[in-house]
Design brief:
200 residues; alpha/beta; Nucleotidyltransferase, domain 5; 2 domains; 5-stranded mixed β-sheet; 7 helices
Length: 200
């Protein structure tokens, strides 16, 4: 077995925007000191996450590792549900590596599962805090998703997506109550909210 793959998702719970799944592929003897400070993305500041993201991109250019982030849209989540949306993005992220599943050990966070052809896989509760490969996948997924929400924000200026990234903060809920849902909101996640009459 030549490769280790870490997988984690970001954006399972927000009311708006996509869900993203990050996958990081490293050789089994990878030197983790090259990405020092990696841990669960939720426990890192945005500045540190961005620094780790850029360092990882530089390492990919030198072929030290590879990473892939795939997303499923709010529309896909509304149509099929959050679990199938994550499953689809996960399979897509993995497929981009084009490596033989039997040549990989796959570590996944929480409740995630890889396609069954990845016979050497292990799901680890709170793995994003204990396994560097999962932690790095967590950072890549979160930074990619946060950047997407920042890019989308000017198109929907009322919602301040660049601030809360689609999560259900008090300010976000008050805008939904006033303005209704945008086209990137997950309507199925907002069904019990008080929603304004105007759709923006």
């Amino acid at each position: 077995m030549n490769y280790l793959i870490g997988i984690d998702e970001a954006g399972r719970g927000p009311l708006a925007g996509p869900v993203s799944v990050g996958a990081v592929l490293v050789p089994v003897d990878f030197d983790w000191s090259l990405v020092e400070g990696v841990r669960d993305s939720k426990k890192l500041s945005e500045k540190v996450r961005e620094e780790i993201f850029e360092r990882t991109r530089e390492l990919e250019k030198t072929s030290a590792l590879r990473f892939s982030v795939s997303t499923s849209s709010a529309a896909y989540i509304d149509t099929y549900g959050i679990v199938p949306a994550i499953k689809r993005a996960l399979a897509e992220a993995l497929s981009r590596f084009e490596v033989a599943p039997a040549d990989c050990r796959v570590l996944l966070d929480g409740s995630l599962k890889a396609p069954e052809e990845y016979i050497y896989q292990e799901t680890i509760i709170r793995g994003d805090d204990t396994e560097p490969a999962i932690s790095l996948a967590s950072v890549m997924a979160k930074v990619t998703r946060d950047r997407m929400m920042k890019r989308l924000s000017p198109k929907y200026p009322a919602y301040d997506f660049h601030v809360h990234k689609g999560y259900g903060t008090a300010s976000h809920l008050s805008v939904i109550a006033r303005c209704g849902l945008s086209e990137i909101h997950r309507a199925t996640f907002c069904s019990r909210l008080h929603v304004g009459s105007k759709s923006v």
